[in-house]
Structures are given as C-alpha cells and as structure tokens.
Design a protein that fits this description.
Number of helices: 6
Shape: rod-shaped
Radius of gyration: 56 Å
Strand content: under 5%
Protein name: DivIVA domain-containing protein
Oligomer: single chain
Keywords: Coiled coil
Distance between the termini: 87 Å
Number of strands: 2
Structural class: mainly alpha
Helix content: over 70%
C-alpha cells in the first residue's frame, strides 16, 4: 500500500507540472510516464482486492449458500436439541423410577425392622413383667409363710408364757415388724422391676425415633431433588414429601 501511495503522489506531481494548453484548463502530460505510474499502481494493489471484487460479484450466490447452510445448521441443531431433550426426559424418568423403587424398598425394610423391634420389645416386656410378677409372688409367699410361722411361734410362746403379758406383746410386735419388712422388700423389688422395664421401653422408643427420623430425612432428600414440573408434582399423589408419609 505504501507503493500505491508513492505512485499516486508521483502521478499527481506529473499532472501538476504538465504544460498547460493556452486558453483552457487542460494540460499536456507525458503519456508514457502516466501509463508507467498507473502500471505501478495496478501492480502495487494487493491481490485481496481482486478477491474482494470476486466476492462482491458472487455476493448473492454466497448469501444464498450461507442462508441455506444456516437453515440446515438450525434444523440440525433443533433436531439434535429435541433428541437431547427426549433423552434427558427418559433418563430423568428412569432415575425417578429407580429412586421410587429404592425408597419403597427402604420403607419396607424400615417397617420390617420396626415391627421386629416392636415384637422384641413386647417379648422383653412380657418376660420382664412375668419375671417381676413371679419374684413378687415368691416374696409375698415367703412373707406370708414367715408371717404365719411367726404367728404360730408367737401363739405358742403366748400359750407358754400366758402369764407374761410383756413377752406376748413383744412377740406380736416382732411378728408385725417382720411382716412389714417382708411387704416393704416385696414393694421395693416390684418398683425396681417396673423401673427396669420402663428404661428398656425408653431405649426401644429412642431406637424407633431414630429409625423414623432416618426415614424422614431420606424421603426429604428424595423429594427435594425431584423435578419441579407438573408431571413430577402429579406423581406425589397428595403426599407431603417430608418423609412423614412413611409413618402413615
């Protein structure tokens, strides 16, 4: 381009220094010099100008080809997008189905474990209750036996020492004390048994609570990650999605 500008400047100088024609604004320029400068300008012009002119000459054809190619690209992109959307929906439905199946299995296992734990708790409660009742009955029977024996001993002693009223009163008092002690011991053992049974039931209640909270968190995570569209919303079937539906 620098050479083009030099040739143009030289051409302007030739025209300015050319001899003028009298009575006119024309001038006489050396033809050979002008033609040489014009050849220099033509040779100095970059080849991209010819290419640009070819592009301008084929503008409509190029625009039509570009438009057709763009339309084909758009159609292909739209078809590919539709295919990807269909694949994504199918994959989402598959994942939701798998999640529901896994959730149902988890609920079934949790219910089975809860039922087993309840049955075990009931068995332990029954066993402890029966054991406590048997122990209480044994202690009560022992107390009654001791009471009867002490009464018999007291009566015998009373018959032997009928004239000794103080001794008789002491025997009655001792017999009453022994009976009261036996009754107190039986009540203490019954209270200890009740406390043990209550502690076991509290442990069982805590285990059930942990299991239910675990199920609730699993259900909450499941429904929190579900798609928020109309189809997913209809699939809840009126459930809250909080995990408490597992208890129902």
């Amino acid at each position: 381009m620098y050479r083009v500008f030099e040739s143009l400047d030289a051409l302007v100088t030739v025209v300015e220094e050319a001899r003028g024609v009298p009575m006119t604004s024309n001038c006489v320029v050396p033809r050979g010099d002008v033609l040489d400068l014009l050849d220099d300008v033509r040779e100095a012009l970059p080849g991209e100008l010819d290419d640009a002119q070819d592009v301008l000459d084929r503008r409509d054809e190029i625009v039509d080809d570009a438009t057709q190619e763009a339309e084909q690209t758009r159609s292909g992109a739209q078809e590919e997008a539709e295919q990807l959307l269909a694949d994504a929906r199918a994959e989402a439905e598959r994942l939701v189905a798998e999640a529901r199946a896994e959730a149902e299995q988890t609920v079934a296992r949790a219910r089975h474990e809860a039922e087993r734990t309840v049955a075990e708790g009931r068995r332990q409660y029954t066993e402890l209750t029966d054991r406590a009742q048997a122990e209480a009955d044994r202690i009560a029977h022992a107390g009654r036996t001791a009471h009867d024996r002490y009464i018999a001993d007291g009566q015998a002693e009373q018959a032997r020492l009928v004239s000794q009223a103080e001794v008789v009163r002491a025997a009655h008092a001792e017999a009453a004390r022994i009976v009261d002690s036996a009754d107190a011991e039986a009540e203490r053992l019954r209270q200890e048994c009740d406390g043990y049974v209550d502690a076991k039931l509290a442990e069982f209640q805590e285990a059930l609570g942990k299991a239910l909270r675990t199920i609730s968190r699993g259900r909450s995570n499941l429904w929190r990650g579900a798609p928020q569209n109309g189809a997913a919303g209809a699939g809840l079937n009126g459930r809250s999605g909080t995990g408490m539906d597992l208890i129902d």
